[in-house]
Model the fold of this input.
Amino acid sequence: MWIDVIELDVRKKDEHFDFSFIAVELFHRRIKPIYPKKDKLSDNDYKGVCKYITWQTATKDIANQRILNIKGPKYLIKCTLINRNKGKVIVEDAVWNTTFQRWVPREWIMTTFVCNKKEKSVCSTRRR
Done:
């Protein structure tokens, strides 16, 4: 089945995109994509070529079916963005400890251990 996005409502929320709904129409695959052999292409190049051929075939097949007045089933998908890690991730500053060869909490800089001034923000997940 080909999926044709008819309409969507999107807005930017913080750094992410939030879709309130997506309306799609489904069409049967009447034209099958013909992919080339993977001779001298790298994996990424071959994947890119295959994606382009699939997109091109889908666009052509959907356009042909619309010309023939073929209508597929339509669906309205309602969705919301949920941050399941909200409140679980805590960012803490850390320094490099040359004795243990690892990142340690910033409070350790005043102790007897040797710490370099290299700093890093460490994300830790805490379970409640």
